[in-house]
Amino acid sequence: MAAKINLLLKRAIDLFGSLLGAIVLSPFIGLVAIMIKLGSKGPVFFRQNRLGKNGKTFELLKFRTMVTNAENIGDGIFVREETDQRITKVGKLLRSTSLDELPQLLNVIKGEMSLVGPRPPVPYHPYKYENYSQEQIKRFLMKPGITGLAQIRVRNSAPWEKRITIDVEYIESFNVCLDIKILVITVLKLFRKDNIYLGS
Question: Does residue 126 have a cis peptide bond before it, meaning omega lies within 30 degrees of 0?
Fold first, then answer.
């Protein structure tokens, strides 16, 4: 019963938080969209298939921070450092503050994501869904999040195996109070640039 109540409260926080955020930040989101359009050729949003709850694929939204077709240039899906030539000038600012994630508020409203949860990987990296171990696949028992326990601890500085371990820890210890703590810490860390890139 407690688990069901926590999940209901989590969804309520997701809906209230994402709707409020989308409304309050709409002028800022519009400004960012204009900056992206003026800064480089291509769409405002970057769309990519990701793995969600129980391995179901959904289309994740982000502000575009790289040149068009960047996935087929250089290191592909990997961005190892901020000097990557595929990152636009506006994109560097958005990435350093994680503001490129704001469009995922729509994914939360649609019920594909949560404000807090494991970050959703692409379907083919680090593993295909069926290739995660019995322990690792626990990370897909809940909806993926815009932020999460791994994000506030190591962000992208640790290899996937370490991040997956932290994701499983989150799943096993989930409660609404933990979600609120993660959200508060995320806001405090918002303008810090550490742990954005994995240098190896």
Answer: yes
